[in-house]
Design a protein that fits this description.
Blueprint: E1 11-16, E2 19-25, H1 26-32, E3 50-55, H2 75-89, H3 92-108, E4 111-118, H4 127-138, E5 141-148, H5 154-173, E6 179-181, E7 183-187, H6 193-206, E8 210-214, H7 218-228, H8 232-238, E9 246-250, H9 256-265, E10 268-271, H10 273-278, H11 286-291, E11 296-298, H12 307-322, H13 330-338
Parallel strand pairs: 3-4, 4-5, 5-6, 5-7, 7-8, 8-9, 9-10, 10-11
Antiparallel strand pairs: 1-2
Helix pairs in contact: 3-4, 5-6, 8-9, 12-13
Bound molecules: zinc ion.
Residues 54, 56, 213, 249, 301 line the site of zinc ion.
């Protein structure tokens, strides 16, 4: 995954004190670093760590859950009947335990950095310390956020924002550089302009990125058209949220004008193919976005934590969607999962 996308056979990596100090031919490295401990990776691939651009670590708790509910018939009902009851039930201990298992699974499948959004109206103040403790114990890197939403009340929204501010202050004073703060807004259909503007102001003040679910289901699009007379990305742009420090999760239902806005503002997109298929929301216009040089990362949305499965899903989904076996280059998928800031160098 260097600039030339070289594949180096019969090479080795020299590591000292947890950092890569040299990459070179195995025989030469063995001479220069004689006496070093050797990990034999014959027949395997050594590659950069995988980045999961959008996750909900607590989604781990839904694995194997038996849901005694009336089957949802659209995405809004999936939120109302599946996710939001889980949010309500979350405790601090659940936040820690789910984050611990999720990070172990990430580590086992090569994920070294992720962006997490936690949601739980009954476990707000202080919860990010519990999530961060789990991340630190596993030893991978993560950006962690509390997902601000005004689903129940305005107070709930601002408590969520406040938890991110509290954690940002804590993280500034901490020596652990592996866990960093992130601002998260649930989705434009559950928050007011006032809350979005407040988060924008704080994100700039603290120099912390922001993430928000965008146009995942059609409900988000309809809500914004009905209440604001504009589509989700248009509204987020009009309130001044968008910029290179903002990651828009999903972006399934976008107009061409919205894609233009994302390209112009430099915002990034987190593509979650397995979640989108699970929730039957549609196929994100990834090829159109790549053509506009939009940065696209790959996320799991709290669903399958093996990112190789998510890479395979992204690769297959766009082939079948476009009925074109050359729809997307597998290296483009690998770039989305490793260096999302430059996903389309080889696509051209
Ligand atoms: Zn999500």
């Amino acid at each position: 995954m260097d600039a030339k996308r070289r594949i180096l056979e019969n090479h080795s990596v020299a590591i000292r004190d947890g950092s890569i100090v040299e990459i070179g031919e195995t025989t030469a490295l063995e001479e220069r670093h004689s006496g070093a401990e050797v990990l034999d990776a014959s027949g395997r691939i050594v590659m950069p760590g995988i980045v999961c651009s959008h996750s909900h670590l607590y989604g781990m708790l839904l694995r194997g859950a038996s849901l005694n509910i009336t089957p949802p018939s659209d995405f809004t009902q999936i939120l109302q009947r599946v996710w939001w009851p889980v949010d309500e039930a979350m405790s601090f201990e659940d936040a820690y335990a789910s984050a611990l298992v999720a990070c172990v699974e990430f580590a086992k499948s090569g994920v070294t950095l992720f962006a997490d959004t936690y949601s739980g109206p009954n476990s707000i103040a202080g919860v990010l310390d519990h999530v961060a403790r789990a991340v630190s114990e596993v030893g991978i890197r993560g950006l962690v956020a509390f997902e601000a939403t005004e689903r129940h009340s305005k107070d709930e929204g601002f408590s969520g924002v406040q938890e991110n501010v509290r954690f940002a202050e804590t993280a500034k004073a901490s020596h652990d550089s592996k866990v960093k703060p992130l601002f998260s807004i649930h989705a434009s259909f559950t928050v007011s302009d006032e809350l979005i503007k407040e988060v924008r102001k704080l994100a700039t003040k603290y120099n912390i990125p922001v993430t928000i679910h965008v146009a995942e289901g059609l409900g988000d699009v309809h809500h914004n058209l009905e209440h604001y007379g504009k589509r989700p990305v248009e509204r987020l742009n009009d309130v001044g949220l968008l910029g290179p420090d903002v990651v828009l999760a999903h972006c399934v239902n976008l107009s061409n004008d919205e894609i233009d806005i994302i390209a112009r503002t430099g915002a990034g997109v987190a593509h979650n193919p397995m979640s989108n298929m699970l929730n039957a929301v549609g196929v994100a216009p990834v090829l159109r976005m790549l053509n506009r040089n939009i940065n696209i990362g790959l996320g799991n949305d709290g669903y399958v934590f093996d990112m190789f499965e998510n890479m395979r899903a992204a690769f297959l989904l766009h082939r079948v969607h476009h009925k074109d076996p050359n729809a997307i280059n597998p290296y483009t998928i690998l770039e989305m999962a490793t260096i999302p800031e430059a996903p389309n160098i080889l696509a051209k």
